[in-house]
Amino acid sequence: MANSRALLLLGVLVAAACGCRAVRNVHVDPQQPVTLTTEEAQKLRADGLTLYAQQPREVESVNKAAGLLEQAARTLSNDYDAQWQAAQALVFLAENETRPELRLQAARRGVVLARQARALKPDGVEGQYWYALAVGLLANEDRTYGLSAVGEMETALKRAIELDERYDMAGPPRILGILQLRTPPPPTSIGSPRKALRLLQHAVELFPEYPENYLYLAEALHDNGRADEAREALRKVLEAKPWPDRQFESQQWKSAGLKLRDRLDKP
Q1: What pLDDT, on a 0 to 100 scale, did the predictor assign at position 17?
Q2: CA angle, corner 135, sides to 113 and 58, nearest 5?
Q3: Between these two residues, 184 and 89, which has the higher pLDDT value?
Q4: Are the C-beta atoms of 149 and 19 separated by less than 8 Å?
């Protein structure tokens, strides 16, 4: 699937607590007019999905894939899958592009496309999930969306959990857990280390072989004062083989795991 997903730098939302811009007002202007036939758009979509699926993912190839998928989505404007598939590729770019201006552009475009998917199919887990991720990454790049972003993410992720908590290897509870782990507590925001821990434990229960779930479980255990259990969870991350369709992401998980282990080892 896309990026390391849960490697959202949601800590910036703490600093963004005074943000006053509304995510719902995010719009983008199309760069080119729609001139494709439906058949041409379907061909671009198929090519984009093939390119996106190549392993290991690289920013350059995903950039090309996202361009094809976006073009297809604009022609297939009433096709739910076309919208969220383009948003998924843009979420990868919004997290992994090295240039901040391109991360911001990708996040904004991802928000718009995922929002369109939600409108087309409110009970589709994919639209809810990729919308939440795109919103979080938008807030990472533009902190003025802080408070609005947290609310939008929480609503979308709770709905995603209702629809299919197993989607993306327990992505909905995993991301909501990270959101609660990295935001301030009420009344400022929704942060709660204890609630986060329960969500991340549940994600591990749903997919006990998936390394990313253990990475954030380790962080939650650490934040709840359970360092020994956190080290054991990290061991599962660091010793795991690369996940077959997430080879790029697997390296990110290990890097993040090593950094967290260093934090645990400090007196």
Answers
A1: 45
A2: 75
A3: 89
A4: yes
Q: Which two tokens stand for residue 133?
A: 């991720």
Which three-class secondary structure string do you get for the chain?
Answer: CCCCCCCCCCCHHHHCCCCCCCHHHCCCCCCCCCCCCHHHHHHHHHHHHHHHHCCCCCHHHHHHHHHHHHHHHHHCCCCHHHHHHHHHHHHHHHHHCCCHHHHHHHHHHHHHHHHHHHHHCCCCHHHHHHHHHHHHHHHHHCHHHHHHHHHHHHHHHHHHHHHHCCHHHHHHHHHHHHHHHHCCCCCCCCCCHHHHHHHHHHHHHHCCCCHHHHHHHHHHHHHCCCHHHHHHHHHHHHCCCCECCEHHHHHHHHHHHHHHHHHHHCC
Contact 215, 237 (CB under 8 A): yes
Which residue type sits at 210? Y
Q: What pTM value is reported for the model?
A: 0.91
Query: For 64-91, what is each residue's pLDDT tens digit?
Result: 999 999 999 999 999 999 999 999 999 9
Task: Give residue-wise pLDDT tens across range 134-144.
Answer: 999 999 898 88
Give me the sign of the Cα torsion angle 180, 182, 187, 192.
positive
Q: How far apart are CA 165 and CA 157, in angstroms?
A: 9
